[in-house]
Amino acid sequence: MQIDKLEQSLRPVETPMVPYPPKYITLASGEKMVVHQIGREDVPRVLEAVKPMIAVAKDFYDIVAARLYAELLGYYRYRVKDEYCLVGTVNGVIAGIVNGRMLDEKVGMSYHTMTLKRGLRIGAQLFAAKMEYHMDYLGQEEVWIVAESPIGFRRWMIEYELEPRPEQWHELGGVPTYVLTKALWEKHKAAKCTGRRPVPEEMLAKARELILP
């Protein structure tokens, strides 16, 4: 596709990022959730899953969904630098979504975690996968994190014993910044980050169908 000079000037220079290797996690229900990274071409499909949640006020889904929608659209339209999105699917159906970006080679910026299939700690599993991507695959030293709901604060700030960093403001604003350091990741990784690799080809192909819930 031809990109004119004006459009090209609006697009940030992208940093090469190692792709996240897919994995599958056995949930408490016995179902297997595949966690994999999507590309720009998949974003419109994922936006269809996010959009209805903008009208759901319970547990602050509305603000999380609205911001996630805008972030993914920014990624799709080349208006956010070095963003990524991981999706969890169960039998091909979208069960949860997480996203973030690289601030620079040492620091990661966690954006949002949204669960569509509740009651199985899918959000917690996907958040851990996001931290795994930053720490173990992108090789970063720390990830900046904020929460927009009490559930998120308990799951991330308290359970991971995150380091408060009030002097540094996260791009999302809100609650002062908390930080996952390498030391904290190594402390909690074994308990929080689960899953197996490689994902069988048939299972991965089904996951990539991105069926709407």
Q: Beta-sheet strand percentage?
A: 15-25%
Shape, principal axes of CA atoms: globular
Q: Helical residue percent?
A: 25-40%
What is the residue-averaged pLDDT?
97
Instruction: Please provide the ordered H/E string of secondary-structure elements.
Output: HEEHHEEEHEHEEHH
Distance between the termini: 32 Å
Biggest sheet: strand arrangement: 1-2-3-4-5-6-8-7
Largest β-sheet summary:
8 strands, mixed
| Unreliable parts | none
Report on the structure:
The chain is α+β, with helices and mostly antiparallel strands. The protein contains 7 helices and 8 strands. The chain has helices spanning 5-10, 43-50, 61-76, 122-137, 150-158, 182-192, 201-207, and strands at 23-26, 32-37, 83-90, 93-102, 107-115, 142-145, 163-164, 178-181. It has an 8-stranded mixed β-sheet with strand order 1-2-3-4-5-6-8-7, with helices on both faces. Strand 5, helix 4 and strand 6 form a beta-alpha-beta unit. The protein is globular and about 50 Å long. The protein starts with a helix and ends in a 6-residue tail after the last helix. The model has no long low-confidence stretch (mean pLDDT 97).
List the helices and strands and how they pair.
Blueprint: H1 5-10, E1 23-26, E2 32-37, H2 43-50, H3 61-76, E3 83-90, E4 93-102, E5 107-115, H4 122-137, E6 142-145, H5 150-158, E7 163-164, E8 178-181, H6 182-192, H7 201-207
Parallel strand pairs: 5-6
Antiparallel strand pairs: 1-2, 2-3, 3-4, 4-5, 6-8, 7-8
Helix pairs in contact: 2-3, 4-6
